[in-house]
Structure formats: structure tokens, C-alpha cells
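Protein 1 of 2
SEQ + STRUCT:
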Amino acid sequence: MSDAAKWYVVHTYSGYENKVASSIKQAVENRRLHDLIADVTIPVEKVTEVKDGKSREIERKLFPGYVLVKMVLTDESWYLVRNTRGCTGFVGPNSNKPLPLSDEEVAKMGVEKREVEINYAVGDSVRVIATALYGSIGVVDSIEPDKNKVTVILPMMGRETPVEFELNQVETLDE
């Protein structure tokens, strides 16, 4: 896969996100275009829904009506995606020459998993470097690298409170 592959946003009819994504994946398989289209995804988040007194975990689309495609932009790849049933076009000022997402946008959306170097362990004192709790100091309670989560015990209102952060939202204290 070439380094030229970038993430593009494709607009779809409402409710057609899964159909468009599977159609693009199927077309890539059929036409053997793995070198042009590397990935097709629909960003989702897991949410606990309470209905009739019962809670269950569901996946909710972060961007309804949109599909993200990582591809090398050529006439062939553009044509394949643009002419997929349910697709209304690329997002950008000119749908004939779509603009890719920037690296910062991709990181903020959480589309690609990035390796985060963890330089702290359970029991270490850390400082929060993001969120509304910026500057708070606490102790690492647990680390889940596969989920990109760290639980830190922070003193809040006179109590020890466990708070969950992403791995890159805390740093070790310089001693």
C-alpha cells in the first residue's frame, strides 16, 4: 500500500452508511483494487442504552450519513466510490477533486489506531494534560492499552475518585 493513501469523507443517503461501505468493500474485492482502496469505515461509539428498565450496549454512528474511505485518489478509485449506489459524493468544495482529511482531523476522529508509548505504570503518580481536569495529579489505578484507557485515582471533593482517560491524556510527573 502506498503512503499516498489518505482518508476521504463520502456523503451517503441517510441510513445507507452500512450498505455503501459494504458495496465499496465488495467492489474492491471484485476488481482487486486493494492497492488503491485500503480501508472503508463508519466511525461508531459504544453507548449504553436503557430501555424499559433494561440496559444494553449499542453502537451509535458518530457521523450519520458519512463513510470514511482510505484510498489513493485516482480516476479509477474516485469513479468506483462516487458511483456506488447510495453515495451522493465526496465531501469538499469540489466533488470532482475531493480534499483528504488532515492528519489532525484523522487523529481527532479516532479513525486510525495510533500507538501510544506508555511511560508510566500502575501506582505511578501522573498529571492530567487534557480535558477539564487539566493539571490534576493522581495515581494510576489500571492501564488497558488495547482499549486506549488508563484509570487514575484523583482526589475530588475530599474523596479518592477513579477517572478514566485516554493513554495520551496523562503524563508522568517530572521528579
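Protein 2 of 2
SEQ + STRUCT:
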Amino acid sequence: MLDIVLVEPEIPHNTGAIARTCAVTGARLHLVKPLGFDISDKAVKRCGLDYWHLVDLSVYENLDEYFAKRGDSGLYLATTKAPRAYHEADFPARRRRGCPHGCVRSIASAVSASP
């Protein structure tokens, strides 16, 4: 089972798209606060997220709580702030929590960062 963890997500539309993908694929979605938007029942219904009840969702107060409950083994980390693009990473060797070399940029940021 795939787990997707969003740490301090700020863009509701991106999170909604990821949640929709989780609903369709059965992946679990983990959100680490602070969130840049409201995920209350009222807010979700107002946004028309009629699939939200299909998402296996967990919310954590901070990253420490996430690691305390879920551990840190088998992670693949993707960020816009990593030193290398995802296609340059050796994923199995790059799973160390808290290590900047254990992170990779997403393709969108890798493309936009290209000269």
C-alpha cells in the first residue's frame, strides 16, 4: 500500500488532486499541519469534493508526530528544494530521514529550474 505524505501543504487544489488520486488508487493520504486551507466537512462539501469520504486520511500536528506514529523506513522524499532532480537520485540509497541528500526535486521544479 502506498502512503502519500504532504508536509505543510499550502495549495488546496493540489491537495485535492492528490486526494482524488488517493481515492481512486487506494493510497493513504497523510497531511502534516499546518495546512494552508480548511478540511472540515463544511469546507470540503462547499468545494464539491464528493470523493473526500473515499480518501484514507490521517492528519498530524507536526512532522515529529508523523514519525512517532509511522516511523521513517522506506521513504522516498520529493521536494522543490532538493539539490538534485528525481531522475538523478538513487532512491534505495537515499532514504535517510532529515538528510538533504535523501530528497529529490519533483519534475516540475526540475524543469523550471533548468537554464
